[in-house]
Amino acid sequence: MKQIFQSFLHGAYIALLGLALGSCGDFLEITPRDMVTEDNFWDEKTDVDQMVTGCYTAMQSSDFISRCIIWGDMRGPDVDGASNASEFDDLYQALVNNLMPSNQFTDWSSFYYVINKCNTIIRMAPEVHEKDPSYRQSDLQATIAEMTALRSLCYWYLIRAFDAVPFYRESVQQEDEVQYLPPTSFDAVLNELISDLESVKSSALDHYASTGSNDTELGSFNSNCNRITRSAINAMLCDMYLWRGDYDKVIACADEILAVKQGDYERNHSHTMMAGSYVPEVMAASSGNFTTYLYKNTQSDGNNVFNAIFGVGNSFESIFELSFNSTNRYSAYISSYALSNLYGTGNRDDKYGPVNNGSGYLEPMGAIVAEAQGTSGNWEVFRGFSDTRYYCSLMADDSYTEGSIRKGVAATFQITQSGNKYINTETTTAMAPFVLTSAMDRNWIFYRLTDVMLMKAEAYLMKSTAEASDANKALWASAYDLIEVVANRSVTTAAQQLKSTDAAASDRAKLQDLLRYERRAELMFEGKSWFDMIRYAKQAGGDISSFKEDVPAKCGARGSSNPFPSWAHLFWPYNKQEVKKNPNLTQKSIYNKDTEDFSINN
Fold this sequence. Notes:
The structure is a single chain. The chain is mainly alpha-helical. The protein has 21 helices and twelve strands. A hairpin with a 6-residue loop joins strand 6 and strand 7. The longest helix has 26 residues, at 137-162.
């Protein structure tokens, strides 16, 4: 925990970027605002607002976002190292699941830094309420809800990455307040997070006031997704309840989100004349039993969904995402360096090496790129040639043997239909499918609507059994309707779309496979796949055979042929320096070696 405190001291200036961008001289004279006493801060509402902004700013750091990607995706079956990955040894070793306590990605300080900021605001905001009449009781409660949610989100990443972690809700403002805490178990932390979120959910705002011309009634821009709302808390609860096995509560939280989105649609998009290029449509399951509002692709406009969600960003479908804003790599605004480093753009932060031309350290697994080879393809992840998620998620070469990740880094998607495929290569004579800029201002999405819909579908399936009873069939039908709508809005030919008469619609095992394939295709490269795999194994009673089957393809001679001999190997070791500083934090037994070059494969 002392390491957490020292990182907190060292990183305090990060949050100030969201508070003031003055001259260097002025900046150096500013006392870090989360370390000062009540005597010179915490007097009025604007002080609280500045600190809240600082929490979001801290989450936009490259260290924070890169860990969302690396902890959530990189060890799984979707991403591999690009040709330049060997330049970055810590990343490379994690890619091949050769983890060491000295690996820099075991450093969790950027997450505990945000946790401590949230704790500080929760501790001090009530005093501001007593001093400033303009900071009303409802404002205070909304602030506490917002900070509780951000703190919970940080812990949610930590326990899924490390399993057991130190857990605390007290703010650390002085060094003598530092506590050396032992790790708290995954289940215990999860229960506390759910309890915290449920206790504040009713105080969170559904919507924030309009902040500019892009938030006009008929606009397509949704700045409410850049801050925690009640829907964001419900999305987190959907996720957490799914892991805990409270499936009725997953469904209830998802339904609250869907109801809010229905209201947003009716208020902002159901008019005859609509502003903005991207407008959601009414999407219905073929059974007619489920209707919602999503963007839709067509053969003539195969990139509409991706342009709205990932290009323009802050879309109708977004629930919570961090918004970046940078005109160039030297801009005073915050750039999305984590995405540009890992996925690639026209420039790369030179923190890890020289600037290159578009390549990131990560790329799609070769088997995924090769799905579109030949005239029939070998579609095991995406649905087929008309599944636009394939073409918009990645860029392939002419022979579909190599690819680059483009979801999350491309400013514009411009794929066009060519025969039974969409043009997906920058070497064609047609319009380049992706516009990459040096701005590095693509957003990072934590939760969006289709993610929640698929969590709800998973909950229906987990509530059922394999018996073909009327009750189970009703649950299967409800799950299938959700999966069908998510898949079909991106598949542009009827032959490759799902329909309620498909055999999988009446078979629980096939439906579970279908759900998992659709989550993988829909949310690829969004920091979800590795965590999903752990949850599926947890639902199967700890069966990790799927890890042994799906992941070692990228390890082989580069790592271990069996990188997951036990459940414990699914989680990261504790950082070596953290263990040294905290006497109550004992290294996990599988990583508990003294040698500097220890790895799980030694």
